[in-house]
From TrEMBL:
PANTHER family: FE(2+)/MN(2+) TRANSPORTER PCL1. It is found in: Endomembrane system. It comes from the Bacteria. The lineage of its organism: Bacteria, Pseudomonadati, Pseudomonadota, Gammaproteobacteria, Oceanospirillales. It is a multi-pass membrane protein. It comes from Halomonas pelophila. This is VIT1/CCC1 transporter family protein. The keyword Cell wall biogenesis/degradation does not apply. The chain crosses the membrane at residues 164-187, 193-214, 226-248. The keyword Glycoprotein does not apply. Keywords: Membrane, Transmembrane, Transmembrane helix.
C-alpha cells in the first residue's frame, strides 16, 4: 500500500470521522434497487426491440411496444419492490413486538440469549457479563440486538417509497436508452437495431462497472458479467421472435 492510500485510510479512521460516518445514513442504501431496476429495464426494453426485429416488425411497432412495456413494467416493478420492502418492515416491527413481549414474560431467558450470542462471538467471563449487563440495561438496545443478532434482520434503512422510486427511475432511464435509436427515423431499421444493440451493451457494461466501484469487485469482470447476462436475455428474445415469425407467420 502506497503512502497516499495509507494516509487517506488513517484520515478516514480518526475518531471524529468514524463517528460522523456511523451517524450518517448509508449513501448506497438504495443502490441495489437502482442496479436491479436499471438492469431489468434495459433487458426488458431491449428484449422487446430484439423480439420485434427478429419477427420482422417495423421500427414504429418496436418503438410503441418498447415504450408501453417500459412504462408498464417499470410501474409494476416499482410497486412490487414497494410491497416487498413494506412487508419486510412490517415483519421487523412484528419481531420487535414479540421481543418486547418475551422480555416482559421471560426476561432471564432473553438475557441468556444475549449471553449466548456474545459468547459465540468470543466473549467470556467477566467481560461477557459486562456486555450482557450493558445491553440489557437499555430495553431498546436489548430488543434491537435481538432483532439483528438472533433473527438476522436489517433494522435500518427500510423505506418502501424510496426503494420504489430508486427502482422506477433507474428502470425508466436505463430502459429508455435502447429505444432512442428507434426515435431516429433517418436511420434504416437495421441500423436502428444495431445502434440499439450497441447502446444496450454499453448500458449493461456501465451498470456492471458502477456496481464494481461500489462493491469493490473487479471492474472489467463485473462489467462483462452484466453485459453477458443482458446479452443472453436479448438473444433469447431475438430467437423467440424469429421462431415465431418462421413457425407461425407472426410478423408484418
Amino acid at each position: 500500500m502506497n503512502d497516499r492510500r495509507r494516509d487517506a485510510l488513517e484520515q478516514e479512521h480518526r475518531p471524529e470521522m468514524i463517528e460522523r460516518r456511523l451517524r450518517a445514513p448509508s449513501r448506497h442504501r438504495h443502490l441495489p434497487d437502482a442496479i436491479l431496476g436499471g438492469i431489468d429495464g434495459c433487458v426488458t426494453t431491449f428484449a422487446v426491440v430484439t423480439g420485434a426485429f427478429g419477427a420482422g416488425f417495423s421500427s414504429t411497432v418496436a418503438l410503441v411496444l418498447g415504450v408501453a412495456n417500459l412504462l408498464a413494467d417499470g410501474f409494476s416493478m416499482a410497486i412490487s419492490n414497494y410491497e416487498a420492502v413494506h412487508a419486510q418492515r412490517e415483519h421487523v416491527d412484528g419481531v420487535r413486538r414479540a421481543e418486547h413481549h418475551h422480555i416482559d414474560v421471560v426476561p432471564e431467558g432473553e438475557r441468556e440469549e444475549i449471553r449466548q450470542i456474545f459468547q459465540r462471538k468470543g466473549f467470556a467471563g467477566e467481560t461477557l457479563e459486562r456486555v450482557v449487563e450493558t445491553i440489557c440495561s437499555n430495553r431498546e438496545t436489548w430488543v434491537e440486538t435481538m432483532v439483528s443478532e438472533e433473527h438476522g434482520l436489517q433494522t435500518v434503512g427500510l423505506s418502501p417509497m424510496r426503494s420504489a422510486w430508486a427502482t422506477f427511475l433507474a428502470f425508466m432511464v436505463v430502459g429508455a436508452m435502447p429505444l432512442v435509436p428507434y426515435a431516429m427515423p433517418w436511420l434504416d431499421p437495421t441500423r436502428q437495431f444495431l445502434t440499439s444493440l450497441a447502446v444496450a451493451g454499453l448500458m449493461f457494461f456501465l451498470i456492471g462497472m458502477g456496481k464494481s466501484l461500489v462493491y469493490h469487485q473487479p471492474l472489467l469482470t463485473s462489467g462483462l458479467r452484466t453485459l453477458l447476462i443482458g446479452g443472453a436475455a436479448a438473444g433469447l428474445a431475438f430467437f423467440t421472435g424469429y421462431l415465431a415469425q418462421a413457425m407461425f407467420g407472426v410478423g408484418p
